[in-house]
Design a protein that fits this description.
The protein has helices at 22-30, 89-99, 115-120, 165-173, 242-251, and strands at residues 8-12, 16-20, 43-45, 48-50, 56-58, 62-71, 76-84, 122-125, 156-161, 188-192, 199-205, 212-219, 227-229. By secondary structure, the protein is of the alpha+beta class. The strands form three sheets. Strands 1, 6, 7, 8, 11, 12 and 13 form a seven-stranded antiparallel beta sheet that branches. It has a four-stranded antiparallel beta sheet with strand order 5-2-9-10, with helices on one face. Strands 3-4 form a two-stranded antiparallel ribbon. The longest helix is centred in the middle third of the chain and has 11 residues, at 89-99.
């Protein structure tokens, strides 16, 4: 029997997590408290669809463990999964991917937040919802507090306890970027994802939708049919040929005229 390999861990004690790149985390630290999974509607922004997020979610207190996701065909890092210590890791990832997978794969579920994702307790974060596509806090913060020109965009995202968010941002800001994922502190961690252009995230909430219990982070090149949790052998999604997928959809009663 194989078990997921824990790469790192941190502790949540405030009941909230801030997430994203440095300015996103700072924005999360400035946002008003909100409880549980709240409805988020997609909006049109030019030629794209986005969500306006606070970059902060209510989260289970306690130890959170981080697991690397490995592409077995290229033997490289393909993403991260971070979860509260009480979570069944394979089962939780399977649920999230069933609800909202990579938009670049077949049968990817919902690409945006809607009634279905709300009912399933999944918060969808897409490429235009964070990073430098979301510029709040770059303008809000004064130069004396935070100078956004002092760092370049980093390929990855951070997860930080709300109460420690500002201190963690300032700590990372003063550390060379190639050491962000090495310089971990008790209440936050940086999830590095090399060779990634666009970033996606999915928060999984508990059964009452009152607090996040997991976070899936992946990129444009993540292929879940060839990706495993470090320490395990089973791909996160089953590969299907076009014929197999067609036959399965027939058995499920899929309406091909929609």
């Amino acid at each position: 029997m194989t078990f997921p390999h824990i790469q790192s861990h941190f502790t949540v004690h405030s009941g909230y997590l801030c997430y994203g790149e440095l300015h996103n985390i700072w924005q999360g630290a400035l946002a008003d408290p909100s409880y549980g999974l709240t409805a988020v509607q997609p909006r049109v922004a030019g030629t794209t669809m986005t969500h306006k997020l606070d970059h902060k979610v209510s989260a289970l207190n306690g130890m959170w463990n981080a697991f690397q996701l490995i592409d077995t065909t290229k033997c490289r890092l393909a993403g991260w999964f971070v979860a509260h210590e009480s979570v069944d890791v394979p089962q939780e990832i399977d649920k999230i991917l069933r609800v909202s997978e990579s938009p670049y794969e077949e049968d990817s579920g919902s690409q945006y937040n809607n009634e279905m994702t709300m009912q399933e307790g999944v918060l969808v974060i897409n490429r235009y919802d964070w990073g430098l596509y979301e510029k709040r806090a770059l303008d809000v913060l004064g130069q004396d507090e935070f100078n956004p020109s002092s760092f370049a965009p980093r390929i990855g995202v951070g997860l930080v306890d709300y109460a420690e968010a500002r201190a963690q941002v300032m700590f990372w800001k003063d550390v060379p970027q190639d050491r962000w994922d090495e310089e971990q502190r008790p209440h936050g961690l940086w999830l590095d994802l090399p060779q990634n252009e666009y970033s996606f995230g999915r928060f999984g909430f508990d059964d009452t939708q009152s607090a996040a219990r997991s976070f899936l982070f992946f990129g444009i090149h993540t292929v879940f049919t060839q990706t495993v949790i470090a320490g395990m052998q089973q791909p996160l999604r089953k590969y299907e040929t076009h014929e197999e997928r067609f036959q399965r959809r027939l058995q499920e009663g899929y309406d091909f005229e929609e």
